[in-house]
Amino acid sequence: QKKRRAATARRQHLKSAMLQLAVTEIEKETAAKEVEKQNYLAEHCPPLSLPGSMQELQELCKKLHAKIDSVDEERYDTEVKLQKTNKELEDLNQKLFDLRGKFKRPALRRVRMSADAMLRALLGSKHKVCMDLRANLKQVKKEDTEKEKDLRDVGDWRKNIEEKSGMEGRKKMFEAGE
């Protein structure tokens, strides 16, 4: 038990150390992303200087609208390229799938579940009807028919085969035929 406690304590210590490392790594990543974002914005988005006159403001708005249009066109083009490549990937995956041959179905596990349990799982709280299917069945007595009696009288088929095998069996069949 002492060894088990020591192993458990060590495991807990290692787990907490790993969690601390993960927290510091996540903090470093978020800081790096923030710095990268600031650098990108400084590079691609110069600070906005608003001119004083109305005409200069209108020119600035026209420039910004032109820039927005060009960025929108680029975004649309990249979306179309992405859709095209995704479609190609799906087609290639389908071809690979077809070349491999038949789809291997996973082995399904047999689950014993009553009709009530199945309806309860599917419908949830809405299910209130009891479906005991066996309760509604009628008891039927099996009658012995002549065919079944004949089959029982014949006996084991292996005995007949053994008797008719070989030369003796053929001789018996020949004698029976006369």
From TrEMBL:
Keywords: Acetylation, Actin-binding, Coiled coil, Muscle protein
GO MF annotation, one: actin binding
Coiled-coil zones: 54-102
Transmembrane segments: none
Domain of life of the source: Eukaryota
A Pfam family that the UniProt record links to this protein: Troponin
GO biological process terms, semicolon-separated: cardiac muscle contraction; skeletal muscle contraction
GO cellular component, as recorded: troponin complex
Subunit organization: Binds to actin and tropomyosin.
Function text: Troponin I is the inhibitory subunit of troponin, the thin filament regulatory complex which confers calcium-sensitivity to striated muscle actomyosin ATPase activity.
Family label: Belongs to the troponin I family.
Protein name, as recorded: Troponin I, fast skeletal muscle
Organism for this UniProt entry: Oreotrochilus melanogaster
